[in-house]
Amino acid sequence: MGIALIGYIISTATLNTPARYIACFLFASGAYAVNSMILGWVSATLGSTPEKKSVSLSIVNVVANASYIYTAYLYPSSDGPRYLIGMASNAAFAVMCIIGTWALRFWLVDTNKKLDREDNSDTTRYAY
């Protein structure tokens, strides 16, 4: 997602065609590469039972596909060619994804330590 963030920043900062062309590759590859990792992490973290795994994957897919609802409103034709609102929003979403990932990681590490202190040897540990 950091690579995608660099692409969004380049697209927001310049109208240079070659730079924006390269930025398109950066944010497309950076954002799409994260999707499969997020699904794998959710599956490993919340997959202690088949029910939890199916519900958690469904919720992640619904949240991910909700972007199709608001994305059209972030890129009005009056905002072109820079599309500052859309690119800045994408950069903000990338930052929120990075922060949320680190927060979840620290929370899972802390939860695993609590499980170890309570000596729950039969409880599945969370992947992080």
Q: Largest sheet, if any? A: none
Q: What general outline do the C-alpha atoms trace?
A: elongated
Sheet/helix structural class: mainly alpha
| Overall strand count | 0
Uncertain runs are none
* Helicity, as a percent range: over 70%
Order of helices and strands: HHHHH
Radius of gyration: 18 Å
End-to-end distance, in Å?
17 Å
- The total domain count is 1
Q: Hey, roughly how much beta strand do the residues contain?
A: under 5%
Tally of DSSP helical segments: 5
Mean pLDDT across the residues is 87
Textual characterization of the structure:
With 128 residues, this protein is mainly alpha-helical. It has one domain. Helix content is 77%, strand content 0%. The chain contains five helices and no strands. The longest helix has 34 residues, at 84-117. The model has no long low-confidence stretch (mean pLDDT 87). This is MFS general substrate transporter. GO terms for molecular function: transmembrane transporter activity. It comes from Parascedosporium putredinis. Its main location: membrane.
